[in-house]
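I am still learning, so would you mind making up any protein sequence you like and the tokens describing how it folds?
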Amino acid sequence: MIFATKERDVQLKRLDKLISGIRTNKVELLDILTEIATYDSAEAEIESSIATLLGAEEEVERYNPPTIDRIAVYHSSNVLLYSYVLYAAIPSLFCKEILIRPSTKALSTMVKLHDFLMKQADIPSQLLPISQRKFREQAGQSDVVVFTGNYENSLKVQQTYPQALFLYFGAGINPFIIGEKANIEDASKRAVAARVYNSGQDCMCPNVYFVHENMKERFLATLIQDMKELQIGKRNVPGNVIAPLFYEGLSEQAQDYLTQMKDRIVYGGAVDLSINYVEPTVVVSSLEKIGEVIEFFCPIFHVVTYRDEQEVVDWLHAPERVESTLGASVFGAPELVEKLRSTHIVSENLSLYDIENGNHPFGGYGLQANYVCHQGNFTSRPLLISKEVSAVFGRK
């Protein structure tokens, strides 16, 4: 075994303790996560986190990253536990120190989560709830910088770490595409599950559903019926998949959009600003009248009809959108899979949630979705920290 060393054994035992602590104290962990996430999405996040931790040894054996001194992490504002596993817990196998700046949107929850995880295992990470300027001063000599969030902000932050390996994890359009050969019942269930993950507050949720015009009526009828069965209520109650939104301003953004699109709403449309709630809503457009596709952190389903698959490919590959390509879920249109694979990570007859694996590279080929920058060279591709560290620092 490549890593059969005393130090590596200690590191792996630390992750074993973390897994055990998460399992043993799951109720306490759920109380923390459901401050932001719905109960069901928090449970799914815990299971994904455990699976990724269990795959950590095989991952580092596969990519063999060398030991580095420091990683600086600009942490995400959602999927806090899973992100912590990806950006801190697994890198602790090859990094001596990990500095984390929490998102201000999720600060109090992130502090609780960090304290919880540190009680389970002594991960070499520090949570620094300080300004970006002070964080840069403290983390300026980092070997690797992990940034999540806004693309334009990432470019500004990257310039302040000119010597570091800079990894950007962003977001994309993440289209669902329903072709003429699709199993409508299965596609609809996966479409709903993907859009309502944590009430839609996740960067992997699909922002548009392209449906062949011959499948429109069947898909809409099935989709709406599946949506009617969704449980709505408090986010910390098991089974409630739709709840008032956590992040401020989302209901106002949704209300403005739905007011503009009121003639295209075929289901739902209610918004309650007083509790930051958006009713599951279906908006229908033709490809010719699609307008701007917006990333909503709420359960809005934008269904767009098309006549020919090449229309969808051309729309996705247009210059103003090609840099936002992350994932695409293709149902019943096998001829589209290879056409999109050069720009997207493609899930065939599955959602992106169904195929994501925390121990393997993930993402698309658009700079606004994800990129790696080293010595001024930007490249967009599916990313995994251990693989990127091995590629850059393993050569030295």
